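User: Can you help me understand a structure? I only have the sequence.
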Amino acid sequence: MENKFKLISVIIKPDDLNKLKIVLRNLRNENKDLVVSSPKMGKIGKDLLISFKINNLFQTKIVKTLTENSLTILSLKDRNEILKQIKEEKKPEAENADQESEVVNKGWGDLVKAVSDKPHTPINSLINEGNYSEILKIARDFRINNKFRKEAVNGVGAALNILIARVFRNGSLSTEPLEQIETLLKIGGDQSLKLIHEEDLMKAACTKAIELATLSEDSFKHLITICNNRNIHSFSTIEAVVKLSEIIFSDADKYFYLVELSGTDLNLRWLNIAFDSRPKRMEKQKIASFKKLVDFIQERRNNQGFEI
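Assistant: Let's start by predicting it. Here is the structure, written out as tokens:
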């Protein structure tokens, strides 16, 4: 006996979930005999896989309506035949739907296997490129076999080391290293690295950013940019303030322009927050240098009648 129900699976973006619900609700309102089972939901990367059963008699209508609403059907044995019928009715949307026929006949297992078997760039190549972001994507993709994902996790650190060294080298050869400093700060503030416990390399990236900012007098002003960055570790924030303090107080007259820039641009509230969350073991000299600059700038602002 022919099964009275047909399984339908659609793959959609999360933003299209409400549209799917509305389409099905309207179909039920228009067809009192239509039965739609409770849906089952799974994830495929950033997409949602929704599966549900319908009365066999409404199969053609359901597929046609979903296709017209740009909702991609993944699993339905007779879909190609139904799309052929839709095309014969000369519906403009049918041609687009028919073009999808190669992929939509895959079920959940076939789809996962197809994605898992898709060729990936070798991890070693990504490491050599310093492309840690792509490696992280592979490491988090549950559709990829565990061996390859484990290889990716182990390769993140190596890719970071290569990237940090390359960015620093390029910055040291540039007369204006702001772009490289910002790249290093982006690494230093990347929360996805914190989730896999790469804090040491995040700090290392910030240390290199500070180093770039101190390679020439023209770059000293970029220390203020580093000081104000709220995404990096408080340790790195304090290191930047200490370095700025050392430069300013080595010759306050010579570096008066830094005093003025610090007076207008330094975010003292943020610096105090960073200082309160500093590592317990910090050199007394660094603490003294930090407080010396912050107190000095605060006093100047008070005397000038404004606070930032």
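Now, to help you interpret it: The chain has two domains: 5-113, 123-304. The first helix runs from residue 17 to 30. Let me know which part you'd like to focus on.
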